[in-house]
Design brief:
The protein is of the alpha/beta class. It is found in: Mitochondrion.
Length: 995
Amino acid sequence: MNFWASSRKCKIPWARYSSSSVDNHAFAKSLLLPTTSFPLRANPKELESRLRTRTCTDLYRWQSKDVERPEFIFHDGPPYANGDLHMGHAMNKILKDIINRFQVLRGRRVQYIPGWDCHGLPIENKALHELGEDAASLSPLGIRRAAHATALREIDTQKEQFQRLGIMADWSDETTYRTIDHDFQMRQLRIFRDMVENGLIYRRYRPVHFSPSSRSALAEAELVYKDDHVSHSVFVSFNLQSSLRNLSGPIQLLVWTTTPWTLTANMAIAVHPDLVYTVLQHTDGQKPLVVVAKERVSAMADILGVTEIVAEIPGSELVGALYTPIFASLCPGLPPLKIIPAPHVTADSGTGLVHSAPAHGAEDYNAFRALGLLGKAEEIVCHVGGAGEFTGDVTETTGEAGKILVGESVLDGGSRKVVELLKEVGALVKIQRIKHRYPYDWRTDKPIIMTATSQWFANLDDIKADALEALHDVSFFPPVSRARLTAFVQLRSEWCISRQRVWGVPIPALYHIPTDKAVLDSSILEHILAVLNDKGIEYWWEGPVEEFVPPALRDQGVPLDEVWRKGTDTMDVWFDSGTAWSMLRERGNDVSRADVCLEGSDQHRGWFQSQLLTAVASAPPDRRRLSPYATLITHGMVLDEKGNKMSKSLGNVTSPMTVVNGGPDLKKEPMYGADVLRFWVGTVDYWNDTYLGPMVLAQAAEGVRKIRNSARFILGNVGDVDTRAGIQRVPQSEMSLAERYVMHELYLLEQTALEAYSQYNFAKVAASLSNFANITLSSLCFDISKDGLYANALDSFERRAVVTVLEQCLTTMNFIMAPIVPHLAEEIHEVFNETNSSLFVTQWKPLDAEWCDPKAAEDMKILLRLRTAVLKGLEEARGDKKIKSSLEAEVELLAPELSELQSTDDHFMDLLRREEDFLKTLFIVSEASLIDEGSLGTTSPEWVYISSVSFPGCDDGLTIRIRPAQLEKCSRCWTFTRPPSDSLCPRCTSVVRPS
């Protein structure tokens, strides 16, 4: 039975109580004390499990079928299907869910299809590890089947964990997307075909980022740069063959490199034509002359020793000069090499002369191409194999002595043995151990190399201008991220899209066996894609080549498998996920464009970029300036409380599932549930790197608890649905200042929340909501309303006014909190409305502007300042043990010559006169009055505390007198308002014994 029913049935035997015999508990049943089924604390596991289907899957399906709603497309960047979720995953999905839930509340139909990125080396390696096999011992199909099963298993794990976070979506297999799905892969291959048709795909032998640990080429987006990589750099000398300014004696070219292993592939020395170079002579006259850039002479003093300048020569004069290959003494017969001009040469470091190996450096390669020195692939000298090891070809430039290099890793033993050969030929001038920035494979965490291989590339130069133009109408949050993505696009000229792995989408090219040339055009692809669409992607590995050769390429006289072979390269996984935009149209949309994409800041190098490039590159020329997204939102990384990157080795990882479910020791790792984790996400400036640990989580839990307590207070005082149905609400025009002020603050809160949600600033929403709940409600409204809520009659005007406000506060606050803490909002909605339907099916309709009441806010600001002064005095009296409760006191506000201050311009005094009856409620005392000096009387109170506060219009200050209450304590409401001759105060008498 709820308290409303019991209070209405309660009959008070009035004659039993007299002024001489008062039982302080006798009237308890006549009080409207709070009661609610809404618990003080919820069990997160039970609550969220019970509400999950209602507020996640069922809700998503319900709103997705309402075609009358305007559509909002949120395109999900697919997480990698490899292992349990980390905190970055949790932040990412929660941020997306906050946006989607807000859109649903505002009446839009959200399309959000969760996806997974499923190809790539980590999944392949995990599958092989679980099988206890290596790639060489299994067939391509065997590897692919194992990797496919691993990916599906990992997706199921992540899918269950995402649902534990309260992510609204249809999580069935039919409505999610995976890059291993047949339809997805066929769309991807058609986009590849369109890029081929647009002339943007080509195969070239050139240096690429290559990971020996992955045995595959990598894209820039697959690299991480470490600042503490250690290399052994060398200064080496090359002997100049050409004469120079008629200088006599041998002349050496001094070169510095951090990759000594590339010296076996040296094909030129590069200089800048505009730099000035000096010829230096050692003062002992016993060593060859040395050439270095003039600007580097002072910096090279420790390397060169004591020297003097013999001549100064412009770099243009050095161009074309011949020098002897560095290992010529080990390999007689090597032809001389040339000095070439190159724009990338500077005098900022090294010697100003750059060793050029076009097989191992993009700048070297581009310099050679610009000079027309690379007519054929075989003209590039490269001695590195697929495992990053020296091949037997290295002996072509190092002779028999070079056999010590064969099979050695170029990054380890091979590099050291090259240094040994440099010593042997007398070319090593100095070796230095340096710490510098170096690229690593982001998946294996091993260093990579630059080496020449035959790879498939997408030409970005031809579409770069269109891609940049397409970004002009894209909104960025935070706005500074626009520059980051733009810069990455501007810096790219081509994209290496091929990988030497089995687990991936094939690049369906045919190779002509007699010439080993790749044949790929749109007509051939049409034939191949038709076969794959009919028989599945796996058929590329298991089907005979004959089925993939179109009739135009068939030679009736020769077996096709002797003329043609299928390519074994697969596509870059960024190409996979980057084509996910293409599914939007097939999901029933008019355009292949998302309203919003949200990912971590690393995706400016990855998914944000690959989506843009594949969309622009595959479009007809007249539609290339359309981006696949309208808004891009970026979030930072999650660090520990000290600002360190979370790492298992450091033991500072906070798992999202541990936060939700609790750890083995619940005292150390409590079961917070999803809402606490979501609230933390909603409170941080997510566009920056954020911090998380035990203390931060405890603070988030406290924030949720305070909001929950505010809701519980309201639910306990407004009554059940039937009771509220019988209460007449109070219109704004009849409300007191306090109610109008709270409603004004509620209106401002809602407007702030609506604007902040629309601008993706959820921290502002959470901060404003918490402030309203803790300050406006708990510290003020609840505090001053308790007496009236508990002791007034159920249908009294004053109580109905407060209930009117509390009902609206709870309704509006619930809409505001719902996107961030949906389980709490659903629980409140369930209790408040006694319903099993979701809160989110009710559209959030903002308060009318009539509730905006700046005048009430201005007046309350004045009175709250006065309240602060009064409460300070009351606390002093409490500290001196004069009172236990503020109700034991009354307040007198005394202004000098008050009777003479009657000016209507005196706003402060007018306000005090108008709100005099409200002051005792505001101060929570038994009486408060505005008096002049003549009304003080001659009787001195037992004690008094006097202070003053100044206000505009009251220059002499307002005196505050706090004194003992003059009447007796009421046994029912405990205020000191009972006349000595009565049993109860007048208010309580009217309630328990109505006339």
